[in-house]
Amino acid sequence: IPYAPDTLDELLTSVLEAQLQVGFYKNTCPQAESIIASEVRRALASNIGLAAGLVRMHFHDCFVRVSKFNLLLMYQVPAGRRDGRVSLVSEVLANLPGPTFDVDQLTQSFASKGLTQDEMVTLSGTPFDKMTNHVDGPCFDLEKSDAVGHAGAHTIGRSHCAAFSSRLVDFNSTDGQDPSLDAAYASQLKQQCPQGSNDTSLVVFMDPRSPYTLDTAYYANILQNRGLFASDQALATDGTTEDLVKQNAAAGGGIAWKRKFAAAMVRMGQIDVLTGSNGEIRSRCRFIN
């Protein structure tokens, strides 16, 4: 994710837990973090779209079942977590918040993992949907302020048309499309996702303003009724999260929001951590031993 080197690299030690620590591998593999960070930067240089995928995998791991592999190392990450031994699609459906969730459902979903509503809104820019074959890890316990942060992850990445198409046609018995959706934006989405198309590869950017940059444009979008998902738009219309959305939108691309996002990501990485003799250390990161 494009970022200023002197911002997200700052460690927010106040949110770290004792069982995880930066430099966990300093004796067994002293260069582990720098090697991984270098490889991630190299991969992003050749395919910037991987940034959204890494954030999404981290979110899925933490909300479903813990895995230490899928971490975005653009800021210092406390290490030491072990991998889970179970990988079930059913756990994804049961744990991940859906694109049609309202604010109460989103807040409850994040709170069940120990995250605040502010963290939820901050992370909501996180690219997530339930159309995935990636199932590794549970990470959840937030309040409403954390939940608003979760929304911020939708500032990068793309979504399949099927995840939001219900907002474009036959929305309900009286409206052809979701009345909370900006008309011009809805028209644009209909062109990108033609009704009746069977092409499952069709995708659109979640933040058309700056699709490859981690910033606060996502919040400005939903304030203009240009949130791609109903769950996005709900954040700007619910009285408990509206002010948080406005605060994040006003932050622009400054360091304050980036620090908040980094802190929320670290917090999310601490959900249901496996350490010691729990879990396993995988021989191949994508598969249980």
Automatic annotation (TrEMBL):
Active-site residue numbers: H60 (proton acceptor)
Subcellular location: Secreted
Binding site for Ca(2+) 1: D61, V64
Swiss-Prot/TrEMBL site (Transition state stabilizer) positions: R56
Pfam families, per the entry: peroxidase
Domain Plant heme peroxidase family profile, chain residue ranges per copy: 19-289
GO biological process: hydrogen peroxide catabolic process; response to oxidative stress
Residues that hold Ca(2+) 2 according to the record: T155, D207, D215
Cofactors (names): heme b; Ca(2+)
InterPro entries in the cross-refs: Haem_peroxidase (IPR002016), Haem_peroxidase_sf (IPR010255), Peroxidase_pln (IPR000823), Peroxidases_AS (IPR019794), Secretory_peroxidase (IPR033905)
Residues annotated for heme b binding in this entry: H154
Disulfide bonds: C161-C193
Cofactor binding comment, as recorded: Binds 1 heme b (iron(II)-protoporphyrin IX) group per subunit. Binds 2 calcium ions per subunit.
Gene3D superfamilies in alphabetical order: 1.10.520.10, Peroxidase, domain 2
Key words, A-Z: Calcium, Disulfide bond, Heme, Hydrogen peroxide, Iron, Metal-binding, Oxidoreductase, Peroxidase, Pyrrolidone carboxylic acid, Secreted
GO terms of molecular function: heme binding; lactoperoxidase activity; metal ion binding
Family, similarity comment: Belongs to the peroxidase family. Classical plant (class III) peroxidase subfamily.
Name the record gives this protein: Peroxidase
Source organism: Ensete ventricosum (Abyssinian banana)
